[in-house]
Amino acid sequence: MPAWITPDTCTCIGMLGSVGVAVSYVLSVYDPNYLWVASFCFILNWFGDSLDGTLARYRRIERPIYGFFVDHILDAFSSTIIFLGLGLTSYVSFTIACLTLIAYLLLCVLVFLRTNVAGEFKMSYFKLGPTEFRLVAILLNTIMFINGVPTSYFMAGNIHQINLTSYDFVLICNALLLLYFFVVTAAQETIRLAKENK
Asked: CA triplet 98, 103, 109: central angle to 5 degrees?
């Protein structure tokens, strides 16, 4: 890695990738080829996000508190704009995208709280972490490009009505999985802290 590329440079590359994903999703309404750009930007985001801390440790220029704060503030912002961008496509319901975002942010809150109370930073559950979810997103982008905008399934309720696509059901499954990790881990941590009388 060239010396002029710093950990902060990698962080900026990752953030640029996130913005690129969100913008590409919005533009895919006009041209589906932007889904390929979104997938490339996911790779760019992964490159920057995974390399900034690694590079800092390798060069022994770590700033743990600064790095933790900046990395996760930007992760939260990145996730928000990516899910909102996805919700603004023709493929996914905005409501479902927002519900999935809420599930993801709930899990993030749990991760940060566990880091504080248990001293353990754990972002992967059942071998599923940010990298695996990026791969799922790239696969979903590819399927959306190949299959196009699917037929919507109309669902009516007492409160409001919503049209769901087959891609919405993929997001719903992801949201339920994230909520499962959240509930189970939160319950386990609560029981552990109660037993330790903390």
From this structure: 120
Give the pLDDT confidence of 130-147 residue by residue, as tens digits: 788 889 899 999 999 998
- Of 124, 140, 121, 122, residue with least CA distance to 177: 124
* Residue 128 DSSP SS3: strand
Instruction: Yes or no: say if 100 and 174 are a contact pair by the CB < 8 Å rule.
Output: yes
122 φ, ψ to 5°? -130, 110
Find the mean pLDDT for residues 146-157: 69
- CATH number for 7-195: choose from 1.20.120.1760, 3.20.10.10, 2.40.30.100, 3.30.2420.10: 1.20.120.1760
Which pair of structure tokens corresponds to residue 179? 């909520």
- Name the pLDDT band for 125 (thresholds 50, 70, 90): low
